[in-house]
């Protein structure tokens, strides 16, 4: 009781600087940035190629498009859902747009139709989750397989060559504005935009309420099914956007693209602080998670480590990061 | 041995005319048990005779369940002794209790829903069995024998396909297959139909005839007085008395169960000058398919109205029905003279009717979110710009203003609610309600899990709100709380309002009567 009384004096004044720093230190993002910095320092000594413009650019390009999917996945995880179909749906976006283009549709129109189709797939999953009452895991597992099947069906299993794509369309995936690739600009717009929306808008605050405690959210008058339907749909729509960018970048539509992407994306979000139980996570953190995974991959490649080892190391990083976080959360509680 | 038996012999001479079996099979002596600062059992004694049906009575929190859980080995006592057949025993787990011949039918159904009735009934035997393969045919045959005496249940059906009352019967069958000497039944009739209950009572008497001792927990006085031999009463973790049912009246039991003096923990009552004819809420013939029927009452301006009733009587269901949180409700609800046609809880919030949940952690608050975000959850628009951007400063200002009003103790408004004590968490939940300037608040167990100091504060807040014209309706299982806080109390029994008490009639005895027996006339 004595403690509680003395604490009351604090809220009247602004929080002291000390507590601000302490809060900063407690934030997941701070730890991730520290780890990434350490990796940078170590690698810049270990490999002369690491800290070069070419390598940096390659590293950012490696996660930028996937980063758009990470944004959708993080928001979905916060609302308490999960999506295993992101890889297949991204590939399907390429295939739909590519197929339409080869059949004479304007590439911009084809892209719009493709993104709309992916959005519809998300809405379809959202229907099964919120109206039929199935679990996200099962629904998205089924869609993962179905979408992949559709990709292979539509292409006969072979990549669609799209060399005739007009240069202004390829510009999305291959061009630069000044020294900065367009892909990275799009990525930054999506990340900063959604980070802002998630932190500041009432619409996305309801995503947090729903994921944190769905029943309490319903008891606060929030239409939780609508929220989950929305986040499920948004995730697939962002997969569509990512698919189109990939298509512009590669100049082809690959039906087998993105196999295993869901694991990378979920790993990034979880390393960045999103909880599979819902209610917590930030876009910034998830992107840092993606950066960490990408820096590790790049480092291992530069150090000539076998590709097979890379998977083992990535998996271990995921397990370590989540264990540490779990331990810290339990200790705090 | 002699020390143990002596008091029983002594009592035998005292109770002339009841010179039946006087063997004490189970004796509890000076048992204590604490959960943190809460002392659930404060040195309890208890004696169970061979072949008797012994009722346990007491309010919620009196210590009955804790005592039974200790006897079944689920909980370990802090101190005290347990004697079985005169020998001191340590019951370290439910498996040990089973070996000692103690069977326990819990109030909550604890069956595996995805396996058959037969497998559920013989779960314990299967666990102990040494054979490698399951013999399903033998299992079902044996199960059919046990079930035959209880009712018409096919041993091969999956438990999840059974009705709740049949599931309860399976629980009982499970206990019957154990070779037990002591059988504990915790409110077994709560989910049973009247007919099934009568079958159960018949079986209980037959078992008792065979020398099995039964401990029977129930809130229903009629059942106790129709079927039991003796009754022991507990109150606030203390053992009060044991009496022969034949020698007493339901009144005596109720008196023993309550009988507390209300101290000054509670705020003042409504003053004469505050009494008005103004009606805030008027409910007419509110019914729900299965949960309640023809509920009619009004809530006047300036008063705090209480709703009492046993758990499962339909108290929460009625208010949740009014604000459309659950149930398929028919009837008329009028707020401040205007008839309402609410469809969802959102409509209810928009009208200024809010519900404070009884299950704070389950559906009342967002534990891992900040205090400020919790307070603003009901109406985010209030702290946002027209474009839907949350204004952080306004959100914090709202939380700070309401926090001050409720004397909330916190470090920073951005701390998660999980960092607060139970009482302060509840204040956050109340602040959330107040954030929408409600006209009417339903509070379901507003002080559950709240320490005494915060409890008194919450009660004072409720009184102030009522005085300022907000309609306050309180549901509580704690009768002293209802009597201390409310100006009028409605009592709900089996989905209907069985009576209303006010002023000097507001006693625990009267309320318990209405809650467990019904209208006063039916007792005698």
UniProtKB/TrEMBL annotation, chain B:
SUPFAM superfamilies per record: P-loop containing nucleoside triphosphate hydrolases
UniProt main location, coarse: membrane
Stored CDD domains: ABC_Carb_Monos_I, ABC_Carb_Monos_II
InterPro entries the record matches: AAA+_ATPase, ABC_carbohydrate_import_ATPase, ABC_transporter-like_ATP-bd, ABC_transporter-like_CS, P-loop_NTPase
Gene3D superfamilies: P-loop containing nucleotide triphosphate hydrolases
Topology of the protein relative to the lipid bilayer: Peripheral membrane protein
GO CC list: plasma membrane
The keyword Chloroplast is annotated on this UniProt entry: no
Pfam families for this protein: ABC_tran (PF00005)
Record-stated family: Belongs to the ABC transporter superfamily.
Name of the molecule in the record: ABC transporter, nucleotide binding/ATPase protein (Sugar)
Organism: Roseibium aggregatum (strain ATCC 25650 / DSM 13394 / JCM 20685 / NBRC 16684 / NCIMB 2208 / IAM 12614 / B1) (Stappia aggregata)
């Amino acid at each position: 009781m004595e403690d509680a009384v003395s604490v009351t004096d604090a809220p009247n004044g602004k929080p002291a600087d000390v507590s601000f720093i302490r809060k900063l230190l407690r934030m997941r993002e701070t730890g991730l940035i520290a780890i990434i910095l350490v990796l940078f320092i170590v690698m810049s000594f270990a490999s002369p190629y690491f800290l070069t413009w070419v390598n940096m650019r390659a590293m950012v390009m490696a996660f930028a498009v996937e980063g758009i999917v990470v944004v959708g996945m993080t928001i979905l995880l916060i609302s308490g859902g999960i999506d295993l179909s992101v890889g297949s749906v991204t590939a399907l976006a390429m295939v739909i747009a590519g197929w339409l283009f080869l059949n004479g549709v304007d590439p911009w129109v084809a892209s719009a139709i493709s993104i709309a189709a992916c959005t519809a797939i998300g809405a379809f999953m959202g229907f099964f989750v919120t109206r039929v009452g199935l679990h996200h895991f099962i629904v998205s597992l089924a869609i993962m397989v179905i979408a992949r099947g559709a990709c292979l069906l539509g292409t006969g299993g072979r990549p669609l060559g799209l060399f005739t794509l007009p240069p202004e369309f390829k510009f999305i995936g291959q061009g630069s504005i000044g020294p900065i690739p367009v892909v990275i600009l799009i990525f930054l717009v999506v990340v900063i935009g959604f980070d802002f929306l998630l932190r500041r808008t009432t619409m996305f605050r309801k995503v947090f309420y729903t994921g944190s405690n769905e029943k309490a959210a319903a008891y606060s008058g929030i239409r939780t099914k609508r929220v989950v339907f929305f986040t499920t749909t948004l995730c697939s729509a962002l997969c569509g956007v990512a698919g189109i960018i990939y298509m512009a970048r590669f100049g082809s539509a690959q039906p087998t693209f993105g196999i295993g992407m869901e694991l990378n994306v979920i790993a990034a979000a979880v390393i960045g602080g999103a909880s599979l139980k819902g209610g917590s996570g930030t876009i910034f953190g998830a992107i840092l998670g993606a950066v960490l995974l990408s820096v590790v991959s790049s480092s291992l490649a530069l150090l000539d480590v076998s590709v097979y080892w890379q998977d083992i190391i990535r998996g271990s990083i995921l397990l370590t990061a989540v264990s540490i976080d779990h331990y810290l959360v339990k200790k705090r509680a | 041995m002699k020390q143990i038996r002596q008091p029983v012999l002594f009592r035998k001479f005292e109770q002339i005319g009841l010179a039946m079996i006087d063997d004490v099979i189970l004796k509890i002596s000076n048992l204590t048990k604490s959960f943190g600062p809460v002392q659930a059992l404060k040195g309890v004694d208890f004696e169970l005779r061979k072949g008797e049906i012994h009722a346990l009575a007491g309010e919620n929190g009196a210590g009955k369940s804790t005592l039974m859980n200790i006897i079944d080995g689920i909980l370990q006592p802090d101190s005290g002794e347990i004697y079985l057949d005169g020998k001191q025993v340590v019951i370290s787990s439910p498996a040990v209790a089973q070996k000692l011949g103690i069977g326990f039918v819990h109030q909550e159904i604890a069956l595996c829903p995805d396996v058959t009735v037969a497998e559920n009934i013989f779960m314990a035997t299967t666990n102990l069995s040494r054979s490698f393969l399951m013999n399903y045919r033998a299992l079902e045959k044996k199960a059919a024998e046990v079930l035959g005496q209880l009712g018409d249940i096919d041993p091969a059906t999956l438990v999840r396909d059974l009705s709740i009352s049949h599931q309860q019967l399976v629980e009982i069958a499970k206990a019957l297959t154990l070779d037990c000497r002591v059988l504990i039944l915790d409110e077994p009739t709560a989910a049973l139909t009247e007919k099934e209950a009568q079958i159960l009572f018949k079986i209980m008497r037959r078992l008792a005839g065979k020398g099995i001792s039964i401990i029977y927990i129930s809130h229903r006085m009629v059942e106790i007085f129709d079927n039991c031999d003796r009754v022991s009463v507990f109150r606030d973790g203390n053992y009060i008395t044991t009496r022969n049912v034949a020698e007493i009246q339901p009144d005596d039991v109720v008196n023993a169960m309550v009988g507390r003096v209300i101290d000054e923990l509670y705020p003042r009552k409504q003053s004469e000058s505050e009494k008005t004819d103004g009606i805030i809420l008027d409910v007419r013939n509110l019914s729900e398919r299965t949960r309640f029927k023809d509920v009619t009452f009004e809530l006047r301006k300036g008063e705090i109205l209480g709703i009492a009733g046993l758990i499962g009587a339909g108290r929460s269901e009625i208010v949740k029905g009014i604000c459309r949180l659950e149930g398929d409700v028919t009837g008329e609800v009028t707020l401040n003279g205007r008839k309402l046609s609410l469809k969802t809880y959102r409509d209810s919030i928009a009208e200024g009717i809010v519900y404070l949940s009884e299950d704070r952690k389950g559906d009342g608050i967002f534990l891992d979110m900040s205090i400020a975000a919790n307070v603003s959850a009901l109406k985010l628009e209030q702290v946002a710009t027209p474009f839907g951007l949350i204004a952080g400063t306004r959100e914090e200002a709202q939380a700070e203003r309401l926090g001050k009003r409720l004397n909330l103790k916190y470090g920073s408004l951005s701390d998660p609610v999980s960092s607060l004590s139970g009482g302060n968490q509840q204040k956050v939940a109340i602040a959330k309600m107040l954030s929408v300037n409600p006209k009417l608040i339903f509070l379901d167990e507003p002080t559950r899990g709240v320490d005494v100091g915060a409890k008194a504060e919450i009660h004072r807040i409720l009184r102030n709100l009522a005085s300022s014209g907000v309609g306050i309706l309180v549901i509580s299982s704690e009768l002293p709380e209802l009597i201390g806080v409310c100006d009028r109390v409605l009592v709900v029994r089996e989905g209907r309002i069985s009576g209303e008490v006010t002023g000097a009639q507001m006693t625990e005895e009267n309320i318990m009567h209405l809650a467990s027996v019904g209208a006063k006339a039916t007792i005698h």
